Structures are given as structure tokens and as C-alpha cells.
Amino acid sequence: HVQLVESGGGSVQAGGSLRLSCAASTYIKRNQCMGWFRQAPGKEREGVAGIYGTGGYTYFADSVKGRFTISRDNAKNTVYLQLDSLKPEDTAMYYCAVSGSCSPRLDEYIYWGQGTQVTVGT
User: Is the pLDDT of residue 100 over 90?
Assistant: First the structure.
């Protein structure tokens, strides 16, 4: 069983930046995807970004392309999500998850963290 712990959330003004981290309790194989999802109040959870292996493959939701960056440190079993040029609509609880394949489909992810809150003011 893999435990995931997110950190780095907080409150920022529009245009600001945050760096989220997700640490896994055990080794995450390079053929497994570490992904980030978010859920705003009253909305469904949606895929934000994912990174496979050593970073040779990544995906981003259209709404965050060019603003968010994902990276992974396999030695630390940690995935990062750099959030730049934040907008109020980015306000949500952000979750990381582990899957055998990189996609924005929630049902493909096996392990989930508890989430970290990101709030973007106007």
C-alpha cells in the first residue's frame, strides 16, 4: 500500500505562484504515473497533470498548459507541481495519485493523497 502526502498549498493573489509537493511512502516505479488532480467546490475532480517515469512523458489539462509545470524526483519518491500565473479559477483542493498509466481518468489511479488546498484571490 502506498501512502501519498501532499504539501505546499496556500492562499495567494491572482498572478502568484505555489509549488506543491507529493511524497510517496515507498518507491514508485518508473513505469508508474504520478498525477495531480483538483476538485473545486461543487465540481467534479479533474485531471491537471501527470508525469511518467523519468519525465519523458507528461500531460497537462488545457486549462493549465503554459502555467503549470510537473516534475518528479524518483530518488525522493516525490512529484512536484509548480503553479504559476495563478487564477481564481485554479482554486481547489489538489490531490496527487499513482497509476499504471498517465491519463486524466480518475478510475485509473490506485493510490490517492488527502489533498492540499489552493486558494487564489482576485
Answer: no
